[in-house]
Amino acid sequence: MANHASALKRMRQNEKRHLRNMSYRSKVKTAIKKYLLSLVEKSEGASGLLSEAASLLHKGVSKGIFHKNTAARTIARLSSKLKVA
């Protein structure tokens, strides 16, 4: 357990950031799952769901939640699935 006030504050900040990041990651995963499910069902709105998921990933990069190459790789893989379907 930390003894210094600054270390205690850092722990509180890390906990808040951790919760925020996990919430955002969950939102991104849900968007990706919706997109992949629409591909399986061959529904019309797949490209719209892809752009929504890509937008969330890009925003996550700007917030520091995802690395830019991770987001780019994920978007590339998702868009290649759209071309195949």
TrEMBL record:
GO CC, alphabetical: small ribosomal subunit
TM ranges: none
UniProt biased composition (Basic residues): 7-22
Gene3D superfamilies: Ribosomal protein S20 (1.20.58.110)
Pfam families: Ribosomal_S20p
Annotated stretches, region: Disordered: 1-22
GO MF, one annotated term: structural constituent of ribosome
Record key words, sorted: Ribonucleoprotein, Ribosomal protein, RNA-binding, rRNA-binding
One record GO biological process: translation
PANTHER family with a match to the protein in the record: 30S RIBOSOMAL PROTEIN S20, SMALL RIBOSOMAL SUBUNIT PROTEIN BS20C
Described function: Binds directly to 16S ribosomal RNA.
Family: Belongs to the bacterial ribosomal protein bS20 family.
Protein name from the UniProt record: Small ribosomal subunit protein bS20
Organism for this UniProt entry: Desulfomonile tiedjei
Record lineage: Bacteria, Pseudomonadati, Thermodesulfobacteriota, Desulfomonilia, Desulfomonilales
